[in-house]
Design a protein that fits this description.
about 220 residues; Arc Repressor Mutant, subunit A
């Protein structure tokens, strides 16, 4: 008798993936404290016992979802720097756009992360662990490139860490404040998508105007 192990492995993988997707939806909507594993199991189409079999506890499931999202968010921020031959100005523009696009695809994530860090400050260690080594490496390279352009007269002086914080701040805020902003901006923008695409363009202009020397 031949057992199709590949089919069984795919089935197991599909179940785990369905649980993770359902957990992400539940956690984003209700936070860790409000999320229920019974609701996650129901959304995933599995039994509660099966969810427990794969992930044991709600905390384990949350940590996997949280870690994955933080990793993806960090990666979106620094992915532009794998383009070795790209001019620095274009790298910075791509950095802004990549992070904004990731946040646009995960609109509830900024509010979710802020809420969880406020309610559970110990979760800061998860973020620090994920981004610290990557950030230091990127900041060192970025500062070196900035300094070179400052010497050449094309960039205004700025610390790499200040630039990264500026980009994160200007990109993240629209998503944190989106429900409130749209009650004010609805006379200027008909949809959230229209507003966010305008902010994406505006954010690039604001950051580049901060760092580029005006030659006119």
């Amino acid at each position: 008798m031949i057992i199709n192990n590949d089919k069984e492995e795919n089935t197991e993988h599909n179940k785990q993936t369905a649980i993770l997707h359902a957990a992400e939806e539940e956690f984003m909507e209700k936070g860790f404290d409000g999320a229920k594993t019974t609701a996650i199991a129901a959304k995933a189409g599995v039994t509660h016992a099966m969810l427990h079999y794969y992930y044991r506890t709600k905390a384990n499931l949350f940590e996997q979802v949280f870690n994955e999202k933080i990793s993806l968010m960090a990666q979106s921020f620094v992915s532009a720097f794998v383009e070795e031959d790209m001019p620095l100005c274009q790298k910075i523009q791509k950095m802004i756009e990549n992070q904004f696009d990731f946040l646009n695809q995960n609109r509830d994530l900024p509010r979710f992360v802020v809420n969880e860090l406020i309610s559970k400050p110990e979760r800061r260690e998860l973020i620090i662990h994920k981004v610290k080594s990557m950030a230091k490496q990127i900041l060192t390279r970025l500062q070196s490139e900035i300094d070179k352009h400052v010497e050449e007269g094309s960039f205004l002086p700025i610390r790499a860490i200040d630039l990264m914080v500026d980009i994160a701040s200007i990109n993240v805020f629209p998503f944190i404040a989106l429900p409130i902003v749209m009650t004010i901006a609805d006379s200027f923008y008909t949809t959230e998508d229209e507003f966010l695409m305008a902010k994406r363009t505006e954010n690039v202009k604001v950051i580049l105007n901060r760092i580029l020397v005006n030659k006119s």
